[in-house]
Design goal:
The chain has 228 residues and is α/β, with parallel strands linked by helices. It is 35% helix and 27% strand. The protein is globular. The relative contact order is 0.20.
Length: 228
Amino acid sequence: MSDGSPPLELRDVRRIYRSEGGELPVLRGANLQLRGGEIVALVAPSGAGKSTLLHLAGLLEKPDGGAVLVQGRDAGTLPDASRTAIRRDTIGFVYQFHHLLAEFTALENVVLPQMIAGTARSAARARAMMLLESFGLGPRAGHRPGKLSGGEQQRVAIARALANAPKVLLADEPTGNLDVRTAGVVFEELLATVRREGVAALIATHNPELAARMDRTVTLRDGMVVSN
């Protein structure tokens, strides 16, 4: 990694889905750079390629061309094990549905990814509690997901995504499954926490009001990233 490299950069990224019916180009040379502490909204119509872009940025898929650079390192075409390690240590994910482990408490859900990454249990618990408390969930830390409201579950999911102090946070409609009032509150907490942690965040949303709270907005047009 070179000094001053952005946490995430996409350079001329292309992605083509192939089937018996032929080829479907989804990304045709996408370019995007995220700076540390910057929160970028990704707003585009369904089918434009938002999820594909997030999957490529998160190293869940390999591009058909171009480069996905994480902290200056071309990571998009690395072997699976290397990409998995980078995801674990550098990238956090938040989805529309929380995907919490039902048999574990809120605290344990945030502790587990840290321990998988090699963090000692005591340090993992301390960071997990700090994150949960920042979302107002300190008193709920010992509850399993089934005993939490939808907004509380999504707060835990965001805390889990930030557990390993990632450099990049990718979120796909993180409040899309919540009512309007709860979505607004959770989103404000998400923005405050991301800025405090200095994370570079790319957040896909259909909500223009939420997008307006972020630092800038981009969209996908003809398979390329353009500023709104």
